[in-house]
Write a structure and sequence with these properties.
single chain; 7-stranded mixed β-sheet; 5-stranded parallel β-sheet; 30 helices; 14 strands; globular
Length: about 725
């Protein structure tokens, strides 16, 4: 039942869905070196076989468990002969992590010079188990365990296929039986197929000739869940990491779950207890001083008792630490260690030195105050070297038992510092700089940065923060313009695809010229379409007609469509089930108030009238169509989106106020600008002209902080 073509392949949509880089590369027979990484039964070897069936290149398969340098050399020699004949060679290495360093090094130069295209398959993290040089020359694709729906499709395909599957049997699989197989298979398609084959071929048909697979038969066919766990591999390190983080995060349920997974998979309980002993000091510490003793006692009890009863001690230690108050104040030791490593060696203060040998000769130990001779068994005196006096390493938490010592520690530190100052001990000066600071130069550099560039960068960052792109996503930029969002999307989705829509021929040409520097499979698809006609244009374009998008992005686009809600409803049909639309619009009502840029010390009454006129201009009838947060939310809700999140951001960037720009704002008496019209209505012509002169006097040719407001809407598609 191993799939032979991409159309037969089930699952792994994140790398093989329509529009994904890997699918396009296989279809176009332009595959470069790749490594498939994932747990057993997810399709790594199958993908290699599909590629073998799809490519015009010569295909050679090796298994790293059985092969060696000799096999690599033979494969390379054959590839050299094929190259002379004009044919590429693809070398598939299964279990590539099993090659030792010498074997991987033997393969490297031929991958590097393109003599062979490598397809590696591994269940281990290639970043740890595969030669870094090989990894750097390959694209990594991670295959995930199959979800329940994919496993059901695999089972259905096998049950109906008469040629290669179980279709020649009259079979009925009861629902709870299939649920059991899917659940216990744990994402492994091979496990489902093996269990089905065993169940169907060993079950006697009924009187009607139908083989009925009940829950009981299914349980016998696949009796124990296979837990992905290798004591030297990713699963081992990832699971212990999840366990420790759950205990640290005080989630007792999650901690027990990860503990059970490790014990079930055969992890050494002593390894777990060693990690808990570390955590007892690292993450609980003095918040519960008993924690270390409890875990140490559990470890000793386990050594006495062993398995299976020793699991009680594992569980007790885990639950104690998970529910204990937390403090990482012991990390202060590492701050002290760093200080010792980096700072010049400091002498032991004379009162703290050993006076048993040379007190008479050198006076060592002189001046030491014996704490037990004082009330509370404490006295303020210098313990740190002079250059470090006042340095803080221990930061008591406010949790558990440590909460009660926090105030005492602070009070004593203050007294120590007072004692030091009273005796006129001064810490060495700290070096803060390595050269003179030219504040005027720094301000000049800030002013010369393009205000437009800074503002657009902030807009772009707001969009991509909301978009949460993954490397394999298929993205649509609905109004690409000069490519502000397009190119960032291309950078963030190297295994996906970006479609850039623009109705401006100049912009389209610019994007295509920039794209020519990229490899063909990395280039965005440019679609010539107005936003209002975009859905139809995508349906008729050869490369986009079957695409569904993970993310639809847009900047300042809603004002160009007559009915924004209807347009968004059309876009929703192009989204994947978990797809998002992320749009950003400018809110004109939150724009910069010019009056805020002026000094009104000598004209406060005039300032009050100007601000009133600005309120009419920015918040009156003229800006009813501003893209405010509430309006964007209404539009998205009316379009039928489920989860609508709206975020407003204020962007402040330096801007030079030229005299020409001020003239445009105010205009003339005969042809006033928008700002000029508002103040003339409120103040009259004479005061408005006085105001214009004031603006020119204070602002012309100055750089000012310019404020604008943008609103981002993130909307999730409504599921059918």
């Amino acid at each position: 039942m191993r799939p032979r073509t991409l159309d037969e392949f089930i699952g792994q949509e994140h790398i093989l869905g329509h529009g994904r880089l890997l699918r396009r590369a296989i279809t176009a027979d332009q595959l470069s070196s790749v490594i498939f990484y994932g747990p057993p039964g997810t399709g790594k070897t199958t993908l290699a076989r599909v590629i073998a069936n799809s490519t015009q290149a010569h295909f050679i398969a090796l298994n790293a468990v059985l092969g060696g340098v000799k096999d690599i050399r033979e494969a390379v020699a054959e590839a050299q002969q094929r190259r002379h004949a004009g044919q590429r060679t693809i070398l598939f290495v299964d279990e590539v992590h099993r090659f030792n360093k010498a074997q991987q090094d033997a393969l490297l130069p031929w991958v590097e010079n393109g003599m062979v295209v490598l397809i590696g398959a591994t269940t281990e993290n290639p970043y740890f188990e595969v030669n870094k040089a090989l990894v750097s020359r390959s694209r990594i694709f991670q295959l995930k365990p199959h979800d329940g729906e994919s496993l059901r499709q695999v089972a259905a395909q096998a049950l109906h296929d008469r040629e290669r599957g179980l279709g020649r049997f009259a079979t009925r699989v009861e629902g709870d039986a299939l649920d059991h197989l899917v659940n216990v298979a744990n994402g492994d398609a091979r496990a489902v197929l093996n269990a089905l084959e065993l169940a169907v071929t060993t079950t006697e048909p009924g009187a009607d000739g139908v083989v009925v697979i009940t829950r009981e038969v299914a349980e016998e066919s696949i009796q124990q869940r296979a837990v992905l766990y290798d004591k030297e591999g990713d699963a081992h390190f990832d699971t212990i990491s999840a366990f420790i983080k759950s205990v640290r995060g005080s989630d007792a349920d999650a901690a027990l779950y990860w503990l059970a997974k490790m014990v079930y998979a055969g992890e050494d309980p002593r390894f777990i207890l060693r990690r808990l002993l570390i955590l007892a000091s690292e993450d609980v510490g003095l918040a519960d001083p008993q924690a270390l003793g409890v875990v140490a006692a559990a470890a000793q009890a386990y050594d006495y008792v062993g398995l299976p009863e020793g699991r009680y001690h594992l569980a007790q230690a885990t639950l104690y630490l998970a529910t204990a108050p937390k403090s990482n104040s012991t990390m202060g030791f590492f701050d002290a260690l760093e200080t010792v490593r980096n700072e010049r060696e400091a002498e032991v203060p004379n009162p703290l030195r050993d006076g048993n040998r040379d007190a008479d000769g050198f006076g060592h130990g002189s001046g030491y105050a014996y704490p037990h001779a004082y009330r509370d068994h404490w006295v303020a005196q210098q313990y740190l070297p002079g250059a470090l006096q006042g340095k803080v390493f221990y930061q008591p938490s406010d949790q558990g038992a440590e909460r009660h010592v926090r105030e005492d520690v602070a009070r004593r530190r203050e007294a120590q510092l007072a004692a030091m100052l009273e005796h006129d001990v001064r810490a060495a000066s700290e070096i803060l700089t390595t050269g003179p600071i030219d504040r005027a130069r720094d301000r000049w550099l800030e002013r010369t940065v393009s205000a437009t560039g800074a503002r657009l960068a902030a807009v772009r960052d707001a969009v991509f923060e909301a978009a949460d792109l993954a490397r394999h996503h298929v993205v649509l930029d609905v109004a690409a313009g000069t490519g502000l969002l397009t190119w960032e999307a291309v950078r963030r989705t190297p295994e996906g695809l970006v479609v850039a829509a623009t109705s401006d021929a100049r912009h389209a040409q610019t994007i295509q010229q920039q794209a020519s520097h990229l490899a063909e499979l990395q280039r965005p698809v440019v679609v010539d379409a107005e936003p209002a006609c975009l859905v139809g244009a995508l349906a008729s374009h050869e490369r986009t007609r079957n695409l569904r998008f993970d993310r639809v992005l847009g900047r300042s686009v809603l004002s160009s469509v007559a009915d924004p809600s209807a347009w968004l409803r059309e876009l929703a049909a192009l989204l994947t089930p978990r797809g998002l639309v992320v749009l950003i619009e400018s809110d004109a009502s939150g724009g910069q108030r010019l009056s805020a840029l002026l000094d009104w010390t000598d004209a406060e009454a005039l300032a009050k009238e100007v601000r009133a006129a600005e309120r009419v201009l920015y918040c009156g009838d003229g800006v009813k169509q501003a893209w405010t947060s509430s309006r964007l939310r209404e539009v998205a809700n009316a379009a039928g989106f489920d989860d609508v999140q709206v975020r407003e951001a204020i962007i402040v960037a330096d801007q030079r106020m030229t005299a020409a720009a001020l003239d445009r704002w105010f205009g003339t008496r005969q042809a006033p600008g928008p700002y000029g019209a508002a103040v003339r209505t409120a103040l009259g012509d004479a005061l408005a002209e006085t105001l214009a002169r004031r603006f020119h006097a204070q602002l012309a040719e100055r750089v000012v902080p310019w404020r604008s407001t943008v609103v981002t809407v993130r909307a999730t598609r409504r599921h059918a």
